[in-house]
Design brief:
Number of strands: 12
Distance between the termini: 21 Å
Strand content: 25-35%
Strand order of the largest sheet: 9-2-1-12-11-10
Shape: elongated
Largest sheet: 6 strands, mixed
Order of helices and strands: EHEEHEEHEHEEHEEEE
Structural class: alpha/beta
Oligomer: single chain
């Protein structure tokens, strides 16, 4: 086998996977179709660090809250700029008001900390220049913003230092199951590996 693990995609998720797996004694390669990693990260990333209160799915909510906690350690470890920014989700009519009440109750049951359900007048105290008719709002002190490029590059650089091989400007053309693993064909090479992790939005 050429590699234990082949990671497809050098975006934020691919580089994060490479970083985490590089902590172990594995032979790893990452394949990226562009000339550099995290090149098109803004296509699907808003730079906001959420806390999971808006997720309908319980598992996704827990993962967002876990990520919210993890990012605090990562920005310190990687020495990255990160800004904590409180957020407000606003309801402007009765239907939205009832929905936010349910979202808040669900978030409390999930154990999301540092949130509050505010009445309209309390929202104006926080945002005096708000010119909307606010019925109620969920106020969160958990959210923040980070540059996804900086985070992705940091993941990638540490993974590289830990021995991950980066195959840039390679397009995956075929993946075949073979005995004890996979054969991955790109426009430049052929690789064998024990495991393939696809982090791209495309289907190969």
């Amino acid at each position: 086998m050429d590699y234990d693990v082949l990671i497809l995609g050098g975006g934020l998720i691919g580089c994060a996977v490479a970083y985490e797996l590089s902590k172990y004694s594995l032979n790893i390669a990452l394949i990226e179709k562009d000339y550099d990693i995290v090149d098109d990260v803004t296509l699907i990333n808003s730079a906001i660090i959420y806390d999971g209160i808006q997720c309908e799915n319980n598992i996704m909510s827990k993962l967002q809250l876990m990520g919210n906690n993890i990012i605090q350690d990562l920005v310190s470890k990687f020495n990255l700029p990160y800004k904590k920014c409180d957020s407000i989700i606003i309801a402007q009519n009765e239907k939205q008001k009832n929905y936010l009440e349910k979202v808040y109750e669900r978030a409390i049951k999930r154990g999301v900390p540092n949130i509050a359900l505010l009445k309209g007048r309390d929202v104006y105290n926080l945002e005096p220049n708000l010119n909307l008719d606010v019925k109620n709002a969920i106020y969160s002190q958990n959210t923040g913003v980070i540059c996804p490029y900086d985070l992705g590059i940091s993941y990638g650089e540490i993974a590289f230092d830990n021995g991950v091989s980066f195959k840039l400007e390679e397009i995956v053309e075929d993946i075949k199951k073979i005995n004890r693993g996979f054969k991955v064909v790109t426009n430049k090479n052929k690789f064998t590996c024990r495991m393939v992790i696809n982090t791209t939005p495309e289907d190969y």
